[in-house]
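Could you help me review a protein record that somebody else here produced? What it holds is a sequence and that sequence's fold in token form. I have pasted the whole thing underneath without changing anything:
=====
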Amino acid sequence: MQALRRSLALAAVAGGMLVTPAPDVPGASGVSVAPPVIQVVSADSGFTISGPSTARAGVVTVRFVNRSSPTNINPGSDIALVKLRSGVTLTRLFADLRPQAGPLLGPPTPASLRAAAASTRALLKDAQFFGGAALEQPGQSADVTEVLSAGTYQLVNMNDVFGRAARPLVRTISVTGSVVRVELPAATARIDLTAANRFVTSGTLRAGGGYLVRNVSSTLHFVQFLHVRPGTTEAQLARAVTAPGQPSFVLPGGVEHEVLGPGGQTVFRSPGLKPGTYALLCLVADARTGMAHAVMGMRTIVVLR
């Protein structure tokens, strides 16, 4: 199922930072000052950073924009923000990531499940991933707002990684100074990614986003917003995550918030999230079994108003 496995990038934030509560969503906070924006623009030839590639430490918005041509063979974009741990190379990161796809590209085998489980364990050890976005259609965009500390970050084209490009496209962002502000923008809803491999939502899930996404587990998770037909059931979704091919209930317009690691939290907005019915999925491989979290129960149906 291409729409279910297209975006496998992993985002982990080590040592999540606290924010003060907002009135309507526990864990978020309202601030009047807009954070600095780093804009990442995808096109048929790859992606670029449009404007500044540096920011002061603190609250930062990374804005992802898909300007690919509709006639391009793969108009979607999938970019993750990564910070390598000391001594880890990009080549090693790519090798860590690629086994994630094995159990999703065909019937899982004992070997592919073992490799996928080892992949998740290696990713937790070797890198911190700070979100990103996978945008299915040209014209879509998404904002990921979070607290970034000083350091060098890599924007990685995950389509290149999983397509086994010889040299996946990577761009660099530099963050300098000390964190002086840790208040995230106000959110209308919260999506918790839990240790039980479940999504727990609270507040109002409005079209366009504005969701505080928190990983309250000890492993990696992401949130894929898969646009589906009204009336799609949990039972249909459960069958789809283990069946080959594209299910008939999938509609165009999906968006993905890349994975957060333990303690990670962002505020996620995307105008591409139109009113309608969506399946929330996480396809990260379980660090013990190698099975996709969606197969283990990390899937649900929501309606965006």
The chain has a mean pLDDT of 88.
